Amino acid sequence: MKSPSALLPVLFAGLVTITAGGAMSLQGRANGMLGPLLGHAVFAALVSFAVGLILAGTALLCSSRSRDAARTLFHVLRTRTMPWWMLLGGLSGALVVIAQATTVPVMGVAMFTMAFVSGQVTGGLAVDSTKLPPGGKQRMTVVRVFGVIVVIAALVFGASERMNLGVPLWALLLPFVSGALTSVQQACNGRIKSATGSAVVATTVNFAIGFAALLVAAAVIMLGGVRWEGFPTEPTQWWMLLGGAFGVIFIGLTALTVARLGVLLLSLFSLFGNLLGALLLDLVLPIPGSLVSTTTVISAVLVLAGIAITIMPSTRPSSGSRRGPESRT
Q: How would residue 3 be classed by pLDDT, with cut points 50, 70 and 90?
């Protein structure tokens, strides 16, 4: 049994990850409003990743430690110490931004978040049972599975009234799939961070890969006849361009905490922060499709209960395991 002092690093990592989840809700609102303004969701995603790449790349170039870490990344790839496909986590990040820009205008940030995090916790449970996360494989206990079931049930409960209002099925499936793939992205980010010792490198790789994929996607749809409508012109619209900055915060913070928490707990803490931020945005700054009701608030409370259930076994070392995720730095 771990002492209370041994739980403090896990709890601190959880608070940091909740903050990262809150940044994701801001990213969802920014990209959701930017997409219709530019003419297509892919254009909004491209702008978001361009801003994120500029910020992350600047941080990398300005830090000698990060530059050394980037050289380390090239070395581990060249020697095949780490497989090249772990660099592709940015592809799922690009899908998340496209899902935000496509579905937030249809159903608001809170509903998007509920569908997204349902996929995130489902993917997190699966990924944590593999050797992909940097903290190693975590045993899929009955309590952990029950905690995830509580979270998913809470999200389904909160989403039910929105579905009755006519939200289409595709609008729910797109963020669900992108959320499930985010668990793979977070595990890959953690592996890159562990190999290089730099969250900046992991973040920059994500934005570089995602930006390249979105640049190709934007070129394809423009060749298909879709026009770029231009950038925001109103003084009150400039913040819509900051989706990438919020993404930098999310990816950077989760790359730091995934080794401490594991992918499942990382998903649970970030989804709670994401959901809480989404509820506040839809309540304080509502847009068409936004709805904050008693049902939605109850679902958020139940999500927190699911997190509490799931964190209990994760703070104990698994039987037969010589080194749990809490021993990694």
A: low
